[in-house]
Write a structure and sequence with these properties.
The protein is an alpha/beta fold and 327 residues long. It contains eleven helices and 14 strands. The strands form three sheets. It has an eight-stranded parallel β-sheet. Strands 1-2-3 form a three-stranded antiparallel β-sheet. The chain is globular and about 60 Å long. The model has no long low-confidence stretch (mean pLDDT 96).
């Protein structure tokens, strides 16, 4: 019997508003793929991202376009050539991993060599706002050990100072989402170092970051928008100290594992991050992140409603997925 693939658009409300340098959103728009075979089914979720030219409709259509190949038995490795990296491939790839686990009885954690998986400390993200509002967010979450702070505007030094004063004991990652410039970056880096910042994500626009090879890094700098797949890494050597691996960028867990291993070989630190999605999107990333230097998988914590069953969060500690959820 041939596989059966189904695709669904879903929306999950965000608790309040989530704001970064490129804009705000009030709901997580996701696409879920289910692949059924032999009475078992596997699921995968992706989050189309406008920054990379993706739309809900476009990603849905891209998945449907390969539906016959998936039904005919196309596997994860062949999928890497059949589709480009991105959200559409991610949903299919993760559904295939889940289906394999259900059909074989071998958990994904065992298949990728992280058995038994352990709970991980995740960052918790603070939305971009005026300094006073960001200080209030930081104060409300000051007990969390790791905060990720969205910045990327004209008033970033005031934001950094406000958040640091409100959460003096937390480690802080700054995420500029390409919002700094060649003219501002050195002063911002120095100011971040003075305030004990742990890591800075993607301060400059992807492809316009050559200056990073010529200036000091008083705080380690992590590539996000500049890295999608393993093939991107060679050009980032000497510019970045770490890379942020997201399944929606890499196009699934299969490529993300290759990206992680190649990044380690080249000496990069590893962050595993996410778009704003549900526990179904985070589940494979939790397994990928088992040996990561930084984990940013707080998507469900930002939602007003998650899937059931979902991942279990205790404060900032996220547990590995139950097999009923994924894997």
């Amino acid at each position: 019997m041939a596989r059966v693939i189904s695709v669904e658009m879903e929306r999950f409300p965000i608790a309040g508003t989530f704001t970064i340098s490129r804009g705000s959103k009030t709901e997580a728009e996701v696409i879920t793929v289910t692949i059924a075979d032999g009475g078992r089914s596997g699921r995968g979720e992706c989050v189309p991202y406008k920054r990379y030219g993706e739309t809900m409709e476009g990603v849905y259509a891209a998945i449907e376009a390969v539906g016959d190949q998936i039904a005919g038995g196309l596997g994860r490795i062949a999928l890497l050539d059949a589709m480009p990296a991105g959200a559409a491939r991610n949903a299919i790839d993760c559904a295939l991993w889940d289906l394999e686990a259900k059909l074989t009885g071998t958990p994904v954690a065992a298949a990728i060599g992280v058995l038994p998986p352990k709970p991980l400390e995740t960052a918790y993200t603070l939305s971009l706002a005026e300094p006073e509002a960001m200080a209030a967010q930081a104060r409300a979450n000051a007990a969390r050990p790791l905060l990720k702070v969205k910045i990327g505007g004209d008033n970033d030094m005031a934001r950094i100072r406000a958040v640091r004063e409100a959460a003096p004991n937390s480690r802080i990652i700054l995420d500029a989402n390409e919002g700094w410039t060649d003219e501002t970056i050195e002063a911002n880096l120095a100011f971040a170092a003075q305030h004990g910042i742990t890591l800075i994500e993607q301060p400059l626009p992807a492809g316009k970051d050559d200056i990073l090879g010529r200036i000091a890094h008083p705080v380690p700098i992590c590539a996000d928008e500049s890295v999608h797949a393993a093939k991107d890494l060679d050009t980032l050597v000497g510019l970045y100290d770490a890379v942020n691996i997201k399944l929606d960028k890499s196009g699934g867990l299969t490529e993300a594992l290759r990206l992680r291993d190649r990044a380690r070989d080249l000496g990069f630190g590893i962050m595993v991050g996410c778009m704003v999605g549900t526990s179904l999107a985070m589940a494979p990333a939790v397994l990928l992140a088992q040996d990561a230097d930084f984990v940013d998988l707080d998507g469900p914590l930002l939602l007003a409603r998650d899937r059931e069953p979902g991942l279990v969060y205790q404060g900032s500690l996220v547990s590995p997925p139950d097999r009923e959820l994924w894997g």
